[in-house]
Design goal:
3 strands; single chain; alpha+beta; 3 helices
């Protein structure tokens, strides 16, 4: 992980560059160095505790996630599948 100061038209900003456990590189920009340092510390801690969350995961909707979950167990009884689908529909409306 690293923090790089950058100059923009709005002034100085700080880019935090880091890698996920799978080796993919990510970056995030902050207005203050303090915010960048806090974010870097949070990411290091999450990776070491095994609680790191891939930021690309936020691009999936609740409806898509629910459908993926329903489809992950094709052996579900029809009545259980219908109940689960109804519950997911109610919360993702």
């Amino acid at each position: 992980m690293s923090i790089h100061p950058c100059r923009t038209a709005r002034g100085r900003v700080y880019d935090v560059r880091y890698r996920g456990p799978d080796g993919r590189q990510f970056s995030r920009t902050f207005l203050t160095k303090r915010d960048a340092l806090e974010f870097e510390a949070q990411q290091r801690s999450a990776k070491s505790h095994g609680t790191w969350i891939d930021p690309r995961g936020s691009k999936i909707t609740m409806r898509e996630l629910g459908q993926e979950w329903l489809d992950s167990n094709p052996a579900k009884r029809d009545s259980i599948w219908a109940r689960d689908e109804s519950a997911l529909t109610a919360i993702s409306v």
